[in-house]
Amino acid sequence: MATKIRLQRHGKKGKAFFHIVAADSRAKRDGKFIEKLGVYNPVSNPATIDIDFERTLHWVTVGAEMTDTARAILSYKGVLYKNHLVKGVNKGALTMEEADRKFDLWLLEKQNKIQAKIDGLSKATVNDKSKRLQAEMEINASKALALEAKLNPPVEEVEETTVDSENEDGTVSAASDSTEASGSTEETSEA
């Protein structure tokens, strides 16, 4: 019986959620499996992977084949690296203490990378939120100015001018013409 480590799809449309399982290679994708090894949620950022490390390592050491995606996930979590180190111990290339020390160092570096990504994402979220808030404030200010201009149109001021007019007797006299909000008045003097 050929055993495969692969993903079983769960969740709803657009919200995929996967179980990582060891299953017979002849079984359906979402069908019967031998053992559930963990879960994988690609929707979250960064993706959430929770596996039973020891059982997964056991299946890899006994020769279970992996799909491409399962191989990438197990490599990300360090199962394949631990398997590589265990093979080195079996061949006598290094001791188990050295292998454990190398794996712990690798695991620490990996956790630091993941934490840096999470911190970067949270910082980017805060920056994006502040930019959107600033843009919204600018839009609101421009709308307020437009509304104020619409409700209170500007008052046009007209300059006072002098108009020369002829009287009935033919003499020219100067009169002032002023137009303001109250109306226009024209004064003429009679001689």
Characteristics:
191 residues; S16 Ribosomal Protein, Chain: A; alpha+beta; 2 domains; three-stranded antiparallel beta sheet
Describe it.
This protein has 4 helices and 8 strands. The chain has 191 residues and is α+β, with helices and mostly antiparallel strands. The protein has 2 domains: 3-93, S16 Ribosomal Protein, Chain: A (2-Layer Sandwich); 95-152. It has a 5-stranded mixed sheet with strand order 4-3-2-1-5. Strands 6-7-8 form a 3-stranded antiparallel sheet, with no helix packed on it. The longest helix has 56 residues, at 96-151.
Question: Helix and strand layout, with pairings?
Answer:
Blueprint: E1 3-12, E2 15-24, E3 35-41, E4 48-51, H1 53-61, E5 65-66, H2 68-77, H3 79-91, H4 96-151, E6 161-166, E7 172-180, E8 183-186
Parallel strand pairs: 1-5
Antiparallel strand pairs: 1-2, 2-3, 3-4, 6-7, 7-8
Helix pairs in contact: 1-3, 3-4
Helix content: 40-55%
- The CATH class label of the largest domain is Alpha Beta
N-to-C series of helices and strands: EEEEHEHHHEEE
The CATH homologous superfamily name of the largest domain equals Ribosomal protein S16
Overall strand count: 8
- Can you name the CATH architecture of the largest domain? 2-Layer Sandwich
Kindly report the CATH topology of the largest domain: S16 Ribosomal Protein, Chain: A
The biggest beta sheet, please? 5 strands, mixed
Averaged pLDDT: 82
Distance between the termini: 129 Å
Number of helices: 4
Tell me the strand percentage band: 25-35%
- Given helix and strand content, the structural type is alpha+beta
Radius of gyration: 41 Å
- Please tell me the total number of domains: 2
Spatial strand order of the main sheet = 4-3-2-1-5
Which geometry do the CA atoms define? elongated
